Amino acid sequence: MKCEICPRRCGVDRKIERGFCGESWNPRIALVSLHRWEEPCLIGENGAGTIFFSGCSLRCCYCQNREISQHYGFGIEVSIDRLAEIFLEQQNRGASNLDLVTPTHFVPAIIDAIEIARRHGLNLPIVYNSHGYENLETLEMLRGSIDIFLPDLKSGAEEFSNAPNYFEVATQAILKMFEIVGDLQFDSLGNLKRGMIIRHLILPNHRKESLKIVEWIAENFKDRVILSLMRQYTPMPDVPKSIDRKLTSFEYDSVVNRALDLGLEKIFVQELESSSKIFIPTFNGENVIRDSKF
Ligand code: SF4
Question: How many Å apart are CA 145 and CA 147, to the nearest integer?
């Protein structure tokens, strides 16, 4: 099968060669954990049930997870049956949901694993936590499998993420995601059960682009989705000079204020302290194979 899962449309047979994402068809995973640093409505009592997939179909020069997203072969390859078991193990650990991080290039395997796990009692909401650079037909395949879409809407993606037409592609994808999951639904404790959270990471020196992104979200959704405005940007080694510093409070606050001026009320904001490398998980392969670590 020639791979056209994401907008790269590499057309390669991933059994025998690698495309842009660097991965074969079998899922490769770097960490399975309970994660407390997601948006409050996703962490519940014990944390989101994160599954960090290896590889990525973007290559953001500032990626905090570059260890797993851009170093090919990092992580542990698993079968679809083992992936289904991992889903059930996360449920048994008390995860609030299944949080599939960077899942795009493994969509066919993920759909099969969800089907198997549901037959064996999986009943957690399933979160598709992606960079937003998605094909509409791939998203359509996810109808019925995914409860919550958690896409990024990035600025500077043509320059920093090697993603042509990112804004056009990602906005169409986000409209499609909303069409699939619809309005926000919470349980009695305020945990999100269905709907969409759009994440926007504000970059230094890109405030005006962020304002336009917030305006697009207000115009298309108002408060039918949650907007998560992220200030956690931390410069990694070798990033271009224009983004080689932390965000200022002026840059962050002006984007938050613009969102409020536009009448958006369902907004998550981050504290200044969130810009720190201590929030980057340790990708040690924990729980990928039972009791596994690299
Ligand atoms: S999923 Fe990977 S191989 Fe397939 S089109 Fe995207 S980047 Fe290319």
Answer: 7
